[in-house]
Amino acid sequence: MPPKQHIYLVPGFFGFTNLGELLYFGHVRDFLQAEFARRGVEAEVVAILSHPTASIRQRTADLLKAVQETASEDEGPIHFIGHSTGGLDSRLFVSPGASLREGLALELYASRVRSVVTVSTPHAGTPLASFFLGLFGQQLLRLLSLFTVYVLRFGRLPLRVMFRLGHVLARADDQLGWKATLLDQLFDQLLGDFSSDRREAVSRFLGDVGKDTSLIPQLTPEGIDLFNAACSDRPTVRYGSVITQARPPSLRTRLSTGLDPYAQLTHTVYAFFYGQTRNMPLNRIPLHTAEQTAALVQAYGALPHAEACDGIVPTRSQVYGQVIGAVRADHLDAIGHFDQPTHQPPHVDWLISGSGFRRPQFEKLWKDVSGFLLNE
């Protein structure tokens, strides 16, 4: 009988595994479980819990803990699927000679890993991390973390909150005139809509975001340059990547979001992030192999230019190993957070980019990922 496949879903920057019924990887996990069952493959799909903004080293230790707890009873092969920063955690886990801290031995499990799939991962860094290093960026990070949780719970933000956020972002380049208490007030308003148990869970999660932000400087192009110098590939592991490229914010993308004020104001968040992310230094854009370049050209019609991104990570920063899929999508679309409320369970979008990514593209992408994991 073929051994059980162990698939670990590794969340990204400030990504939660679950808060009550809120699931970061809910749609991906459900699809993969059904797809492996359809193929007649015994597989366990586990979404892990990581410190949201702790260092890559700490997050990799979190991954090791999850693997020890769930894969120690057999010798079945292990696969990692890392979204955003989760892809970096996965690469460090399998890097030969990687050291986390005393008493944590990776090799026993790293030697069992057969594949690493990175989804929208900043392998060459992202300029957005540099923005979040500032005081305003740190405050906005906590607020946007809560926004993500709130939208996934309720489907959308209150308009009163969105209008005020839009005002903050519109003035972000000219920070004179706004006060930190405005962000604090928005934060308190959102938490007020949760039950007492949910407020406690969300507060703990957001406390982790505020307590340890050592991940942020590591995600700058300069920080990732050091990471890449120290992190090497394991010869027995197959590396693949899912690439996302969203449309630049424009009148067209604004019109595509419709007349709904909520959608328009959420699009402002996307436009702001896109403006910060597009400033990738030319000397930090990695060179690609002929096969990688061909896959990008086939998917997009041309090699993405230096400013192309998914609103969070530059598109060409995401390429690593075999290009499994390259899609028109924003940073959260590929893991199921897009606008399709009629699907059961519903897909809920909070980064409204006008990408047009929907369930058919989602299913095709994850079928391709499943085939890569099984080396088909």
Automatic annotation (TrEMBL):
The organism's place on the tree of life at top rank: Bacteria
InterPro entries: AB_hydrolase_fold
Protein name as it appears in the record: Triacylglycerol lipase
